[in-house]
Amino acid sequence: MTETISELLRDASREAVAVVGGIADDDMRLPTPCDDYEVRDLLNHLFQVVVNFQALAAKESADFSTTPDRLHGDWRTEFEAETARLVAAWSVPGADEGISGGMGLPSGIVARMALLDLTVHAWDLARATGRDYTPPPQVIPALNELVDTMAATARKMNVFAAPVPTAEDAPAFETLLAHTGRDPRWNAAAATR
């Protein structure tokens, strides 16, 4: 049975919440596989994605022009609550149908963009903080379809870097990471040298 986008988001959210919940305050200045982001920056970006894609599920506008600092108070618990709201927003009947009012793209693609960010940025944050991360395997087919569809545009917009070469028999998630321009072998120790 094929899972719905809200079920895939729920599965990815569980893993992302676990990664975010394990990030220590002392980790905030660590580099990440996203060249322009330290851990703190990437956490705020992921918060922004999770909140804005709730609005996009409702065919409303979203504001990506600034990235608010959400890392105050009990921000780990707040991240968990916002991901639950994201899943609920995409669980509404028809959320993944039609055109997203905020982005002008098919809503099914927009939903998979949220799924991609949750999955790939969870990996980024886990790697940055020296931990392993394995995504739910059921999300990979939907993410491969999205990356295949959007890669050229994402590279023009500097969202993806050039693809990184991988072995033909590389695991599916490593291949996905490489297609987004990430080195699946990236590790924090090598990045800080």
In words, what does this structure look like?
With 193 residues, the chain is mainly α. It has a domain at 5-139: dinb family like domain (Four Helix Bundle (Hemerythrin (Met), subunit A), Up-down Bundle). 54% of the residues lie in helices and 0% in strands. The protein contains 7 helices and no strands. The radius of gyration is 16 Å and the shape is globular.
SSE topology sketch:
Elements: H1 5-21, H2 39-57, H3 75-91, H4 107-128, H5 140-156, H6 172-179, H7 188-191
The first-level CATH class name of the domain at 5-139: Mainly Alpha
Shape, per Cα inertia axes: globular
Our measurement of the CA-to-CA distance between the termini, rounded to an integer number of angstroms, reads 46 Å
Secondary-structure class: mainly alpha
- Biggest sheet overview: none
User: How many strands in all?
Assistant: 0
What integer is the average pLDDT? 92
Order of helices and strands: HHHHHHH
Quaternary structure type = single chain
Give the helix tally.
7
Low-confidence runs of at least 5 consecutive residues: none
- Work out the radius of gyration: 16 Å
Q: Could you estimate the helical fraction of the residues in percent?
A: 40-55%
Output the CATH homologous superfamily of the domain at 5-139.
dinb family like domain
Short characterization:
This protein is mainly alpha-helical and 193 residues long.
Which key phrases capture this entry?
Four Helix Bundle (Hemerythrin (Met), subunit A); 54% helix; mainly alpha; 193 residues; single chain
